[in-house]
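tl;dr need the bound structure. longer version: we got a ligand (glycine) that a collaborator sent over and nobodys looked at where it sits. i said id run it. heres the input, straight from their email, havent touched it
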Amino acid sequence: MSEMNRVTVDLGDRTYSVVVGHGTVAETASLLPEKSKRVAVVTQSGIPASLIPHFPNHQVTIHEIGIGEEHKSLTTIAALCSAFAQSGLTRNDVVVGVGGGMVTDIAGFAAASYHRGIPVVHVATSLLAMIDAAVGGKTGVNIPEGKNLVGAYWQPHGVICDLDALESLPAREMRCGLGEMAKYHFIARENLDELPFAQRVARSIEIKAEIVAADEREGGVRALLNYGHTLAHAIEIETNFAMAHGEAVALGLLFAAHLGHVMGRITSERVDEHYRVVNEVYGIDLVMPSGLVADRLIDAMGRDKKALESITFILDSAEGLEIVPGVRESDIRTALTEFVGRLTPRV
Ligand code: GLY
């Protein structure tokens, strides 16, 4: 195995490690709780067999969940919990989620619910899951009234990020992960692009780990992880999820830069830096999906579940990112016009 990084998420007696590197799936068994005898692996078809860990000293059952947002549901949680019970899983045993963010969200929530909470270990197989979904303990499913509206904070016992998984990741999924990765440049105000890619993954996880350790339940600073997400959620809703989350976040970061500039919080050079990171460092060169209407986007942003009072944004400033409530609609409109104008290729 080449170089391995171990990032610690420091949460007192729930502290855990995130193991990052090539071939780290082989480390998964070492992260299981000592007393566990049975492992319920939750995964999806299409995950390469080489990423499913081996547990020679455990009794293992494999549970595949469906592909697609419609399976991110309470029905899936109920089916998993029944399957866990039928395979004799006890509260001393462990769930292992192997997959992208959807799998780790579902495996985490099923583990949080079964026997009122049993340990879970995640093997993140997408970039987005490695640097975001699998770390930090947010789990959940969708209900007809909203995405991720039902869930629990349930910290994993450990997380594996095997960079070999990225070699077979479809290009669009990779782009989604890169969209989320771009936000860490602005959260940490570091030139992460100076780091080799593997170290950049580890550093992104470390930045998230520090924030989660400081504010596990998003009473304050954890909200900074939602930089770029207010417009992103609106775009996802208004395109009926045809635009994927990480892609929408990339656009949301650029919009947030324009909004920060319109509000006099950052310079135009700082706006350019957002474009440099998103377009040049990560090669994400998207335009706004056609048919989106400013009024509807603004309405959707106002309904965003992260809103604290009126329309709240995470915005940049000379001192770093800040939570900014009460953003004026006129500023949002001006920023949207500037943003769409700059994105649209000129002929
Ligand atoms: N994905 C944002 C968070 O974990 O808080």
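gonna send this back to them w/ a short note. Residues 132, 136, 138, 222, 225 surround glycine (CB under 6 Å).
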